[in-house]
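Continuing from the previous page of notes. For each protein in this section, the sequence appears first, followed by its structure tokens. Read the first protein now.
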Amino acid sequence: MSHISRSTFIIAFFFAVDKVFALARQVLMARIYSTSEQDVFFAANNIPDLLSVLISGGALGVALIPVLSEHLEQRGRADAWDLFARILNLAFLVTGALAIVIYIFAAPIISGVVAPGFTADQQALAVELMRLDLAAIMIFAISGLAMAGLHANQHFLLPALAPVLYNAGQIAGILILSPGSGTLVGPLTLSGLGLGIHGMVYGVILGAALHLGIQIPGLIKYGFRWRPVLGLRTPGVRQVLRLLGPRVLTMAFIQWFFLLRDNLASRLGEGAVTGLNYGWFIMQVPETLIGSALAIAILPTLAELAARGDTEGFRATLNRGVRVLLALTIPVMAILAAGVEPVVGVLGLEAEVSHYVVLTTRGYLLGLAGHALLEIASRSFYARQDARTPLFAAFLHAVVLYSILANWFVQLWGLNGIAIANAVAFTSEAALLFFLLGRKVPGIWQVRATVMRVILATLAGGLVVLAGQAVLPFEAWGTEVSALTGLAVMAAGAGAAAPFIWADLRELGRL
């Protein structure tokens, strides 16, 4: 296998392990905390998550990797690490300053922006949780950039393991810190410190510390030594900041989806915020394993090809990535949409909330291919050190189009309209970016044969799952048996789809 394919499999494997831990976390949350507490927890995370995405991880990491890759290619590792130290220090200081502002204004942020539909007690609890969560964000200010530094050095193992430990920390918070003495969770009796939903946030802080700690040996191995330097006038720093400005705005526009989503859902009654969050989590499982894994692995290579001016190599690599994403995401969308209902029961949610989860999962899944393609499309522009085009596309779709559609669709289809609006807006954004990229790098969208095979695979996989749903007596079984059987049926659907797209899946080994 090629370096990219090996890296993709490593990342996807640990993402899969992470999703198992995340599923365990979600099941425990659903069974230990009330629906109201879960609504509050998810809403309270919105602004801290926004800060994390903008500063410590998504925005700065993607802006940093192309410049670090260029420095490694042209100037050597010592120069690249000097730049990394300057960016790391700057990110930590800026994150700290913004965290102080959020801490002070947490109450009006919750009541006026995040969850105006919550009761006064729910808003007060959300303020407490949001303030606690800022401690974890300070740790992520370092940890998120550590991932970017290791990715630029083509090291993916420890960054892929970090999210697993993050979820392990949260699980520890749920099992050890949250429950009181003698709390029953299914067949288990737990005796913890009795901190309730606050224990979950302390678990988030513990998980963030583990997320950082596992990556430190990798930084040491590749020769990083921290230095107390800034140097805003340093050419490399200014180069990163030129990419960062548009990237921050781009990610802010994307995060607008989460803010508007929970704002609208908070007005639809108890369980609506939780239902949307669980639906998003389920859709994100295949999106992360397929789209994020491939996009993370391919970005440093695309950046190196762009730095060398190898347009043909850039085109060929990106075209193979597009075909692999199409071949995987569209059949998975159909299989998961058809088979998700019996699997949701394992969460142990109330019947109405479980219904919300099934509906919103199917709504989000309409955009699975679009989300995965958007991951690689936006990174292709950053690899070419063009941050303005993704900024324009994100504003047009994630803010303007999504805002219009979400407010319209929620009137037509209720809660599920919010999920469908997300699918339409982000798929449109991916289509626009590929159209614009194709004008600069012709040939990246040569996928006609792949599309024909994908249609056949989707029909085969979807029909097998629908047949299983129609024949098997899920209602007569318990939730655990139904969930396992549902997974088996979806696996059979995947097996039916695989022969049709095998030629495209083999392209992953050639990346």
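Done with the first. The second protein uses the same format. Note its length before scrolling.
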Amino acid sequence: MSRIGKKPIILPNGVKAEKKDLTLKVTGPKGGLEVVLHPKVKVNATEKELTVDIDNKEEKFDRSLWGLTRALIQNAVTGVVSGFEKKLEIVGVAYRGSVAGKKITLSLGFSHPVEVDIPEGLTVTIDKNVISISGIDKQLVGEFAANIRGLKKPEPYKGKGIKYADEVVRRKAGKVVKAVGAGK
């Protein structure tokens, strides 16, 4: 049985959920999000909470949809109330970034600066070498942060690259050089 799917989703003050066909629209102080529902999943809405249910609790696929749908709705509710944020760190000599309008320009040791368009609905700021990505859609924030990190992943020898703020990069030892004349 899905333990996550059984939990009701509490709607805070100022958040409204509206079900129409196979979509659930959640609106709050920071904006609105839509969650597409699977036909096998039923969402029951009251004034202060939402419950998710399925018909066939014996089938594994249906149970997985039950927990997934509940988690997606909870993320939408959390997003419209407080939003989500990911922080990335740029590590390396002469590695830097700047935001101009709807573009991020990153200098990552390549022969050219890398420019990335910021998706609609996200706010990006760069303070020293820390990139802060925030928005109401958890999936969009995480995907954009992963795309930025993928431009120059942290390498294990010097730790240069773009890493998450809470990520620990395992360091490796470099080459060990033999002393000259020690083996004779």
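What the second structure shows: The helical segments are 3-6, 60-81, 138-151. The radius of gyration is 23 Å. We return to this in next week's lecture.
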